[in-house]
Specification:
The chain is mostly helical. It has helices spanning 3-24, 31-43, 49-64, 69-95, 100-122, 133-136, 193-225, 244-254, 256-285, 289-295, 328-336, and strands at residues 165-167, 172-174, 179-181, 186-188, 231-233, 239-241. It folds into three domains: 1-64, no CATH class; 67-125 and 192-295 and 327-339; 127-175, no CATH class. 56% of the residues lie in helices and 5% in strands. It is globular and about 80 Å long. It comes from Salmo salar.
Length: 347
């Protein structure tokens, strides 16, 4: 099995994993969870108790407690890509007379992305507090489908405002809760959704621009090398014209780090572009990820559905699905200029 075949298998596996993540995200039972549980049951009898305990504590810390591990991982991956781009691609592009203005775009986008990344991490998402509770109850009406009036959060001991949800990771109720993002170690809610959308957009633009510059560099390298006019001897001893597969394999052998960096950039762009499009679609229809999952019938594990009280919308009644939509422009305005809790004046 040659190198290109192995790489093709790798690409298929990665794309399959992306598709499965997109299909089963937000569901309680997923193939990943079932596979993990099955493997755990098989290896548990042969695994030392200290290792089982350490693994459970580590997984709990990573995915069920606030921590900065994924922030550090984000910075590490970003630093590795920019180091490789600066060390090799930048120099090759300068030799090909690529303008400095074009080469400076990825660094400008890095600064813009870092600003939105910082805002996602530090900005308060819209925590439901006792001080603001009475005003937050007035921000959104209850649709009486996904959000019922009078439901009290058992942890916060407050009546839950419409569109809010208690985040188990942050241990707080968040107004217009979307999801908890481990990459920014923060909830995405009413007050920071705009920063999250702009962060996704800037990361996609950054990855796309670096990928285009890298592809342009590789194409120039192929043209300059004259390999398109080259010939080689195949396994049967016949002389063959260098084709596309030969050129790709030549690039892998000549620029291995650059080609793998390009593959990573394309992978990141495809994954985050799809994720960004999904969130921009939700913004256009004034829905959150939490509401979208409930609308698909994925009932919250803390709820006990009954015929007259369901978290998810019945298939026969989809008219309430867009209950909070007020038109595209007003929906976008609500994202970038979020509704504020009503403040009572002191007399």
């Amino acid at each position: 099995m040659d190198f290109l075949t192995l790489f093709a298998i790798y690409v298929v596996v990665v794309l399959t994993c992306i598709a499965l993540v997109c299909k089963y995200s937000g569901q309680q039972q997923t193939p990943f969870g079932l596979l993990f549980d099955s493997v755990t049951k098989v290896i548990a009898p042969w695994t030392p108790l200290w290792l089982q305990s350490f693994t459970q504590r580590t997984l709990h810390m990573l995915f069920h407690q606030r921590n900065r591990m994924f922030i550090y991982l984000h910075i590490l991956l970003e630093g590795a890509v920019y180091t490789e781009f600066t060390y090799e691609v930048f120099g090759y592009c300068r030799d090909m007379d690529t303008t400095l203005s074009s080469l400076s775009v990825p660094y400008v986008l890095l600064v813009v992305k870092s600003c939105f990344f910082y805002l996602c991490i530090t900005r308060e998402p819209g925590t439901v507090t006792k001080k603001r509770h009475s005003g937050q109850l007035q921000v959104y009406p209850y649709d009486k489908r996904m959000f019922q009036p009078g439901v009290c959060c058992p942890t916060c001991q407050l009546v839950k405002p419409a569109r809010s949800k208690h985040c188990r990771v942050c241990n707080r109720c968040v107004q217009r809760f979307d999801h908890h993002c481990v990459w920014v170690n923060n909830c995405i809610g009413a007050q920071n959704t705009r920063y999250f959308l702009l962060y996704l957009l800037s990361v996609c633009a950054m990855a796309a621009d670096m990928a285009l510059l890298t592809v342009d560099m590789l194409l120039h390298a192929v043209v300059r090398s004259g390999i398109l006019q080259a010939r080689y001897i195949d396994d049967d001893g016949q002389q063959q014209q260098a084709g596309m597969l030969f050129v790709i394999q030549h690039l892998f052998l000549t620029f291995p780090r650059i080609v793998f960096m390009l593959g990573f950039l394309v992978f990141v762009f495809l994954l985050l572009a799809g994720y960004a499009m999904f969130h921009f679609y939700l913004a256009l229809v004034n829905q959150t990820s939490n509401e979208w999952y409930k609308g698909r019938g994925n009932v919250c594990q803390h709820c006990h559905p009954s015929p007259d009280h369901l978290c998810g919308l019945p298939a026969s009644d989809q008219s309430k699905r867009w209950f909070y939509s007020r038109g595209v422009l007003r929906n976008l305005g609500e994202i970038f200029f979020p509704l504020r809790p009503v403040q009572k004046k002191d007399h």
